[in-house]
Design a protein that fits this description.
The protein contains 13 helices and 13 strands. The chain is of the alpha+beta class and about 400 residues long. The chain has two domains: about 160 residues, 2-Layer Sandwich (Phosphorylase Kinase, domain 1); about 210 residues, Orthogonal Bundle (Transferase(Phosphotransferase), domain 1), CATH 1.10.510.10. Strand 3 and strand 4 form a beta hairpin. About 35% of the residues are buried.
Length: about 400
């Protein structure tokens, strides 16, 4: 395998994927203008990337519309849970709950490349993810519409209820994996589309010794769509996407990817979890709708993450305290004293001092109910919706 230290991206796009991800088993190298499936899909831009895929804007020359093309790493192609979930879900219908809550899968095929065989999934083109919009909008709290927050909360709860009714857990619920509906984008001209998502930018890749690039290394990295022209006014309907971590209820995988501050407490302090990880994660998403950020942060110090959870939720269940104490010892911490906890991180405190819109007050017990330590005590999406009936 090539020594990745030999490569450098000039005009570096620092927030894009690492060049080291382009290796056997890794990402497939893409250039703007590449076509796939006998010329049917032509790539014009990049939407983004994740741990196991890159996602591109492509034109479907058969159906004459813009689509999202998700290309998995070669290592994940054989074990992709996402395609299996869509197969289990069955046929998409315009009047189905599927169409309301889940991004539509249009096609799939295999790409053979220098880094291996890659599963390609073709989805309807969606708008920006909610995380990027929440980050932008919440710079000015005056712009936040309480009615929109309530509608988004109800929508994500209904979406999660639907997924659980299909016999699956999503496994990676977050505002990053929720995107606004954007049916109007599909039939735009390329010029009109770029006005909304931004024109592509590139950062050239070169070897430091000037030698030719190895097979499997892209000649340039493409900057992700910026969505500078996206208008959020009136847009509060979205769909869940990225089912790469989904699993059948009762058949939990040994390992589930849970980024930093999004980790549910049972995945930190116990060796057992189930679909109720989705409930904790949707509670965090609703918190983000209300406050514009995350309740917790974690850069590897999981004991500190648990302290933040205690400040936010309350005391740990007695049966979890030995695990927490062992975690503190592992990180060579001093015993935790009651005075070490910060009251201003509690959810009730935050609602009292930061949220003055009466319409949003019913979300306090909803978030509290979803984010209980013991998974068995968390409320269901249906119960959360019942609590919001009067809003």
């Amino acid at each position: 395998m090539a020594d990745m230290s030999e490569y450098v991206a000039t005009e570096t796009i620092k927030t894009e994927e690492k060049i080291s991800r382009y290796r056997p088993g890794g990402f497939h190298p893409i250039a703007l203008g590449n076509s796939f499936k006998q010329g049917r899909y032509t790539v014009v831009h990049k939407l983004g990337y994740g741990g196991f895929s890159t996602v591109w804007v492509a034109y479907d020359d058969m159906l004459h519309q813009w689509v999202a093309l998700k290309i998995m790493t070669a290592a994940m192609t054989e074990t992709s849970r996402e395609l299996r979930w869509y197969d289990a879900l069955g046929s998409w219908r315009p009047d189905s709950q599927y169409s309301k809550y889940v991004v539509r899968l249009l096609d799939h095929f295999i790409i053979d490349g220098p880094n291996g065989a890659h599963l390609a999934l073709v989805f309807e083109l969606m708008g920006p993810n909610l995380r990027s919009v929440v980050k932008t909008e919440y710079h000015d709290r005056a712009d936040v519409d309480p009615t929109s927050i309530l509608k988004m909360t109800k929508h994500v709860l209904k979406a999660l209820e639907f997924i659980h009714q299909t016999g699956f857990a999503h496994g990676d619920v977050s505002t990053k994996n929720m995107a606004f509906k954007a049916e109007h984008l599909s039939n735009m001209t390329k010029e009109e589309l770029f006005e909304v998502i931004g024109a592509p930018s590139i950062g050239n890749v070169a070897r430091v010794d000037g030698q030719p690039l190895a097979d499997g290394i892209p000649h340039y990295l493409v900057g992700s769509a910026t969505w500078d022209g996206w208008d959020t006014d009136g847009e509060d309907e979205f769909r869940l996407l990225d089912f790469g971590e989904c699993f059948v209820l009762g058949r939990e995988p040994e390992i589930i990817t849970q980024p930093g501050g999004l980790m549910p407490p049972e995945t930190v302090l116990t060796e057992v979890y189930d679909y109720k990880v989705d409930l904790w994660r949707v509670g965090i998403a609703i918190y983000s709708f209300v406050f514009g950020g995350l309740p917790f942060y974690c850069i590897g110090d999981r004991d500190n993450l648990v302290i933040q959870m205690i400040e936010f939720v309350g005391d740990l269940p007695p049966e979890w305290k030995p695990s927490f104490n062992h975690l503190r010892i592992d990180f060579k911490r001093q015993p935790l004293l009651e005075g070490d906890l910060r009251v201003d991180r509690g959810l009730e405190y935050k609602f009292k001092h930061q949220i003055h819109e009466k319409k949003l007050q019913p979300l306090l017990p909803v978030i509290q109910g979803l984010m209980r330590f013991r998974p068995s005590e968390r409320i269901s999406p249906q119960q959360a919706l019942e609590m919001m009936r009067s809003t």
